[in-house]
Structures are given as structure tokens and as C-alpha cells.
Amino acid sequence: MKIVDAQVIVTNPGRNFVTLKITTDTGVTGLGDATLNGRELSVVSYLKDHVAPLLVGTDPHRIEDTWQLLYRGAYWRRGPVTMAAIAAVDVALWDIKAKVAGLPLYQLLGGASRERVRTYGHANGADLPELFDSVRARLAEGYTAVRIQTGVPGLKTVYGVHQGTAIAEADGVAGAPRLDQTARPVVEDWDTRAYLRHIPTVFEAVRNEFGPEIPLLHDAHHRLTPIEAARLGRSLEPYDLFWLEDCTPAENQDALRLVREHTTTPLAIGEVFNTVFDYQTLVGEQLIDYVRSAVTHFGGVSPLRKLFDYAAQHNIKSAIHGPEDISPVGMAAAIHLDLAIHNFGIQEYSGYTDRTHEVFQHAFTFTDGHLHPGEAPGIGVDLDEEMAAGHPYERAYLPVNRLADGTVHDW
Ligand code: GCO
Ligand code: MG
Question: Which domain holds residue 269?
């Protein structure tokens, strides 16, 4: 078998998605997600200009060899652009291999280790009544675990919460790029002391309203110093969080040592990591409880499987990043992996716009807060190219974040 074509398709059925489509001489095709939110076109160029010419003429069955060639052969290693491009190739080749075998991908990864994949959804609100409504909406949709993000008194806009409006209701996305009229990044504001004072009161109120059973999660989105994160973790202990996510900027692995010494709140990290080296200290010293990388930003199913096997040696579980800026192609690949590995933790899933479901027809299903990849051969996603072409790329940025005096802060 030979690869005869590698095409990059960009579409915006509500947000930008980048998809690689690999075609073989037998007519079998495979899809891979290469979406890098807010910097999409850099990966398009990487794939079109540098990777596609290397793929044509090669054997699609040689997944590991192709992965190593793209990773080592570029000389310039790692980084989100490179690893998103390699991820798209890896997933497209797994899609092809599984289609040729006539099996859903999870069967090639060892078969199902569970019946279905538990997810968590996003609840958010500017204030408690709005937040409670949002939690109720997620529960009504069937979710059995909920991430809690709220406004902070005195701040106009905070990550995961739109001014006066729950983002999930407003545009279907927590943390999505939101445009102002001039297509510039939205500027949010931040005050760490106000946040640290407010968040424990929110979790107390949520526990009082919804009881002790439901797993609750929270994303600090890289905003705290280690000692601030340690304090937050400790102050949230009475509310029994499933995890505290990205409590410090993720690139300093040593920071987590201090956080870990001070709190038993479980820690999750890794959505901006792109190789196992970003986790070396964190996993090796057991400083975290969940690894959060996405198939799409970690070089694909092959290296993420290796990360999970490494994490398993340290009692650490999976929690694949799954916001709406992971396309249904990347999500499908994640669900196959979730079903197959032993140390599955939870899967983030907040659904897609109707238009996205039309453009990306998929075999995976969401029922009672759980996902299943379906039994279609491959990853089980088809891209309607005609429809995709009807929703062209639109430039969009993630928000940025500033302190009261104008200083740029982590978003
Ligand atoms: C999450 C993430 C997202 C990111 C987004 C950036 O936990 O789902 O933090 O909301 O902000 O993926 O593109
Ligand atoms: Mg996050």
C-alpha cells in the first residue's frame, strides 16, 4: 500500500478546525486533527509545505517509522506546531490501518478495557445563581462530573465565564476564542487575591446545593505561583475536588513539588505539553494525579499511549484534554484510547455545535454523560468536504489577560 495524497482541509463550522486527509492507492483514506487554537495556519503550512511531500509514496502501515522520521528527521524537535502536525499524520495512519483491518481503532489498541468512557462537562456562571443553573443544565444533559468556573467579584471577565453570561450557553465553548469587532483578542482582567478569597466560597455553595456525591473539578488555567496554588489546594480540601487543574504555569515542573507538599487535593496538568519530557519530573516523582495532554497536541495516539503506560507505573491516570477546539477527529481518536487503556481517569467533553456535527459525521456517541467510540472501522469520522468548504477559515484569537495596572498575566 502507498500514500498517494495528503491534503489539509480548514473549515470553520463555528470555530476553526484543521484536518489532514491521507489517501492511499487502494482508495482507503484516513483523517487526523491538527487544530492549534488561535495559531491554526502555522500547522497548515507545516503540513502542506513540509510534511505532505514526504508522505507521498510511503507505506501507510509503517506508523511508528513515519512518526520517528517526522520527529527526528526534522532535527527541530517538540513544540505545539510540530507535534500537532505529527499528531495529524499519526492519527490518519491509525485510521487507515484500522479501516484496512475492518476494526474500530480501539481493537487495535488492545480492545475495550471498559464499557464506556466517563466524561466531565463545563458549568460556569458569573455569579452563584447563574452557576447553579449551568450545573443543573449539565446534569440534565446526563453528565456525572462537572467542572466549575465562576466570575470573581470585582473582575469583569474571567477564564471560562463570559461577562454576565455562561459561555456554554452563549457560544457553546468555555475558553473558546472570542472576537471583538476588530478581530483582536478579548482582554480579560485578573486579581489573584480576589480569586483565592472567592473560589472556596463557591465550592462550599456548590456542595451545599448539589451534595457530596458529584465529582467537581476546577481549572486555575496556569495563573498561580506555587505558594498560591498550594494555598488554593489546601483551602479546597473540604470540598473534595476530583482535581485542581493547571494550578501553575505548566512549563516549570519543579513548581509542583511545593504544591504537592502542602495539599492532598488531586492535581491535573498537561494540556499545553507536547512530549513525555514535559512530564518527566511530574510523573517520575508522582507530583500529579492526572495527565491532561490531547491526542492532537501530543504527536498522536502512538506517543500518548506511551505516556499513559509510563504514568500507570506511578498510579497516575489519563484525562485527555477535550475542549471544542479539539475537532471531532481528535476527539474520536481520544475516545478509542480512553476505552482501551487500563489507567483511564476521565475524558473532558463539552459537545459541538450542530454545524460541526454535520461537517464531521462521527460514529462516537454521547449518552448519560458517557462516550463510546462506536464500531465503525477506523476512528469512525467522515468529513463532508463540500460542507466544510462552505464554512471557510476566519481569523480568531484566544483571549489575553491583564492585571489591574495593565501588566500582562497568564491567560
Ligand atoms: C480546558 C482548557 C481549554 C483551553 C483551550 C485553549 O481545560 O479545556 O483549559 O479551555 O483554554 O483549549 O485553546
Ligand atoms: Mg484546562
Answer: 117-375
